[in-house]
Amino acid sequence: MPKIIPKKTPMPEQSPKKRIENFDEVPYGYSEELAIAEANRCLQCKNSPCVAGCPVEIDIPGFIKKIAEGDFEGSIRIMKDKNLLPAICGRVCPQEEQCEKACVLGKKFEPVAIGRLERFIADWEAKSGNIEIPELPPSTGRKVAIVGSGPAGLTVAGDLVKLGHKVTVFEALHEPGGVLVYGIPEFRLPKEIVTREIGYLKKLGVEIVTSFIIGRTKTVDELFDDYDAVFIGTGAGLPWFMFLPGENLKGIYSANEFLTRSNLMKAYRFPEYDTPIMRGGRVATIGGGNVAMDSARTALRLGATESIVIYRRSRKQIPARNEEIEHAEEEGIRFQFLTNPVAYHANDDGWVTDIECIRMKLGEPDSSGRSRPVPIEGSNFLIPIDTVVVAIGNSPNPLVTSTTSGLETGRNGTIIVDPETGRTSKKGVFAGGDIVTGAATVILAMGAGRIAARSIDKFLRTGK
Q: Are strands 252-254 and 387-390 parallel, antiparallel or unpaired?
């Protein structure tokens, strides 16, 4: 039996002092030698619990074994049999809560760095230039319209085109990718990688139409004039607010607007792109998820003199990925735990100057299983601030659901589907991702897309 190496092979990355001055990707990724070393930590378990923890069912031991053998081409073929977006998943998916959480090695030691290996093999393929386009089956003559080009929609598109169906993806924005391009910063997911992965789908035959707003340019009902089935994967792009006094003051953004201005509209590349955005000063981000970490770290790179995260629970309960929290801490972002805003104050010109907060304590667990934050009466205090980013969550935009007949919706405007099939209440219409679950992760959206693709294929072939 080979010697067990307890810890993951470290991945080289930019130093905190250097990276806060640029938007370059923070981790550099594995070299071939580091990837082989990490792949050799895999125990190659016969029952493969890691596969059960993967929403898109990647043969994890299989692709890792090929890396350990130095057969990188064989590894990427195994990967792309199940996942057409590995460079994206390897960077932004919460492997620690899914495949790595199930890793047998992780029961006593650190789990195999599955996400880092996934990233490695995808990047290796891109550098090699040997990107194989699989032979596709004869056309079925069936056509599918996909609404939204985020992770769910792209997964459905890739799966269906490989089954011989004609696929068209409709995107409301001027660039495809959904949250991958407007929501995730360059230093976590370089946009050239999103473009590369989408380019692969185009080579498979997926058609992508941008600046096409379903619900305005055409409705879902009208799509059936030309298509046999429709998949809705429009995500959750409607930001939540707390409805506090002063929340409409100048200098207060939703995280959606702040990140979209920086990412999709390229404010981070000033002065090449002169997109208006607040720069410098003291910036506070409200919330504790990955979007809050992205916002706080973006603010720092845009020139904030201080970037503060205000979160109503403790460090233990914060929902963001550990890696993102650790990177934020390394970069000097200050966390104000057990704190909740109650009001915003402004100067005579209407610009926010202070957040009035109240201190919190943890009470009994709530429906999420985490301790409920309870205000401490009389503990109000002020935090001087120049800019605020509200990152407390999102709901689906109601445009598609409000313009589609016969579509059953649930709380916060989500679409109700059969979780086993992705089928909606309207015949021929399927849905998945954040439009169904509310804001979640990239890989869960892709998993939902895979389920829906199978059901759409069955529907197209049988009418059932």
A: parallel
Strand partners of residue 170: 147, 209
- Strand, coil or helix: what is 259? helix
Strands 387-390 and 282-286: parallel
Q: DSSP alpha helices (H): ranges in 250-397?
A: 255-262, 290-301, 322-330
242-269 exposure pattern, b = at least 16 Cβ within 10 A, e = fewer? eebebeebebbbbbbbbbbbbbbbbbbe
316-347 pLDDT, tens per residue? 999 999 999 999 999 999 999 999 999 999 99
Q: Who contacts 75 (Cβ-Cβ below 8 Å, separation ≥6)?
A: 63, 64, 66, 67, 121
Q: Which helix (H) or strand (E) holds 341?
A: strand 339-346
283, β-bridge pairs: 307, 387
Q: Are 164 and 136 in contact (CB under 8 A)?
A: yes
Q: What average pLDDT does range 114-134 have in this prediction?
A: 92
Enter the DSSP assignment of 412. G
Structure confidence at residue 115 as a pLDDT band (50, 70, 90): very high
Q: Which two tokens stand for residue 111?
A: 């789990």
Question: CA distances (Å), 369 to each of 365, 372, 391, 440, 464, in order?
Answer: 5, 9, 21, 17, 39
Q: What is the band of 2 on the pLDDT scale with cuts at 50, 70, 90?
A: low
